[in-house]
Write a structure and sequence with these properties.
Distance between the termini: 75 Å
Low-confidence stretches: none
Bound molecules: S-adenosylmethionine
Radius of gyration: 27 Å
InterPro entries: SET_dom, SET_dom_sf, SET_SmydA-8
Protein name: SET domain-containing protein SmydA-8
Pfam family, one: SET
């Protein structure tokens, strides 16, 4: 449970607008580890009931304390938690603990886990540090999320009488419990559960990093739920160290909404403030007036209410754009899982949206994923068009990622890896059909080798026990095969003389 500190090159500062944030006090090189930290606590995602011992889905309760959720395979959980809770639950003191209420509103257990940090003298300091985290209590007061927590967690917890028996009893009023709920909503990281679904983890130090949509640091979580923060580019002395709280493949409106609704701030980073999103055009529409006149015009958001063509100055209201996007999203939804339909839609949408628009990128990602499955599961060798299409999609994604994730990027590494696999297969196929010479094949395979190497370079800083870390092993094995092919092409076997 020990919380590890940031390296000496980082320090925690405070400002009016950001609260606490992390800054570099010396130059940092791309790839340098800035923090490796164990979680303070892991909790299920909202609506899930997970085993408090192993985090698989829970089907029963601990036979001793009666309220800790467990899976069918786990019989025990933390000795301290179990003893504290069973003492409380089995005590004859009045008013009686409403165990059934706690079970019915099982999210109450998440807050109990936080309160148990205080009960345990060994973790009490961590609990107090947790309380210093930002909860945006005032911005959340009486909002839908506040009311939800009140209904499903806080009131049942208070009515169950359990908090009255804890050492924290006098502090455990609605406001205090809302503060803890807010801390989790604002500061927790989404992590992968054993079944690959999501759960949440809280880290005392990693929670202090500010957000930027083009961050200079990446986060990675290993199989023991430790978080690693590393620089994704060189960071100058006195720069703010930032990570991204959002998905980089979302458009500005969606990123800003996510940050406003979940993290309670308005992002003013370089990407959000630029209507072209640093020329990536991930939210740009095509001006059909200009297109009719065979001109190129891009419709960009120039203020919260207006979108304007960069060429003919034609304006649209934000509601009009929202209606267009709503319809497009519906069409995409109906085309799900049908690769031909998605390809058709893509052709249709490119007259309406920029080729890098986030909806187009999403459709392309869907197609690329389906192609991966088709290529992998084909009994016969898949047709070359499939490989060509896959390569093109990966190339386009890599070009886009150079703009929106310019430094060390996991997504770029994966796209390069998939591009290298498909390219090597395609060139081998073309060689097999006598379409390219041995020398050309060798040149192409060398290009694939360069892609694999670049992919590996981008994944070097990922902890080995993550899917991306494991990918490095696959790349090494692919590289070995590739090099052996290149070598054979260098020294072809002598022609077999049949006579
Ligand atoms: C995970 S916490 C970061 C630590 C927090 N500043 C503190 O003092 O505990 C997230 C909160 O930090 C602030 N924050 C982070 N990045 C920000 C940014 N780019 N602009 C404004 N506020 C930001 C917001 O208040 C946000 O809800």
């Amino acid at each position: 449970m020990m919380a590890d500190q940031f390296v000496d090159k980082c320090t925690v500062c405070k400002s009016e607008s950001l609260g606490r944030y992390v800054k570099s006090v010396a130059a940092i090189e791309a790839g340098e580890t800035l923090l490796l930290e164990k979680p303070l606590l892991i909790l299920p995602a909202s609506g899930d009931k997970r085993c408090t011992n192993c985090f698989r889905f829970a089907q029963q309760y601990c036979g001793k304390c009666l309220i800790s959720p467990l899976c069918l395979e786990c019989e025990r959980h933390s000795d301290f938690d179990c003893k504290t809770l069973s003492d409380v639950v089995s005590s004859k003191q009045q008013p009686e603990i409403q165990v059934e209420l706690l079970k019915k509103y099982f999210a109450t257990y998440n807050i109990l886990k936080c309160l148990l940090l205080y009960e345990n003298p060994e973790t009490r300091d961590y609990f107090e540090k947790m309380l210093q985290m930002e909860s945006h209590l005032d911005k959340r007061r009486n909002t839908a999320v506040w009311k939800d927590h009140n209904r499903a967690v806080i009131q049942p917890l208070i009515k169950s009488n359990i908090v009255k028996r804890l050492q924290l009893a006098t502090r455990c009023n609605e406001e205090f419990l809302q503060h803890i709920c807010g801390i989790w909503d604002v500061n927790s990281y989404e992590i992968r559960a054993p079944d690959s679904e999501g759960m949440r983890a809280l880290y005392l130090n990693a929670s202090m990093l500010a957000h930027n949509c083009i961050p200079n640091a990446n986060q990675a979580i290993d199989d023991q739920y430790r978080i690693k923060i590393y620089a994704n580019r060189d960071i100058d002395k006195d720069e703010m160290v930032t990570i991204s709280y959002t998905n980089v493949l979302m458009g500005t409106d969606d990123r800003r909404n996510f940050l406003r609704e979940g993290k309670y701030f308005h992002c003013v980073c370089a990407r959000c403030e630029d209507p072209t999103e640093l020329e990536s055009h991930m939210s740009t529409l095509i001006c059909n007036k200009c297109a009719t006149n065979k001109q190129e015009g891009y419709i960009l958001k120039i203020d919260p209410k207006t979108w304007k063509c960069s060429n003919c100055q034609h304006c649209l209201k934000t509601e009009q754009i929202e209606n267009i996007l709503e319809k497009v999203k519906e069409e995409v939804f109906h085309a799900q899982d049908d690769i031909r339909h998605l390809e058709y839609l893509l052709t249709k949408l490119t007259t309406l949206l920029h080729k890098n628009h986030y909806i187009i990128v999403d459709v392309k990602q869907n197609i690329a994923n389906m192609l991966r499955t088709i290529i992998r599961n084909s009994l016969q060798r898949p047709g070359r068009q499939l490989y060509e299409r896959k390569i093109r999609l990966c190339q386009e994604l890599v070009v886009l990622l150079h703009i929106i994730q310019p430094g060390i990027s996991r997504l770029k590494a994966i796209a390069l890896y998939e591009m290298a696999i498909a390219s090597a297969e395609l060139y081998r196929l073309r060689f097999g059909e006598d379409e390219i010479s041995a020398q050309e094949l060798q040149e192409y395979l060398r290009k694939c080798e360069a892609m694999y190497r670049e992919s590996m370079r981008l994944l070097l800083y990922e902890p080995p026990e993550t899917p991306e870390g494991q990918l490095v092993k696959s790349i090494i094995s692919e590289l070995r095969d590739l090099r052996s092919d290149i070598q054979i092409l260098d020294n072809p076997l002598p022609e077999h003389d049949d006579e």
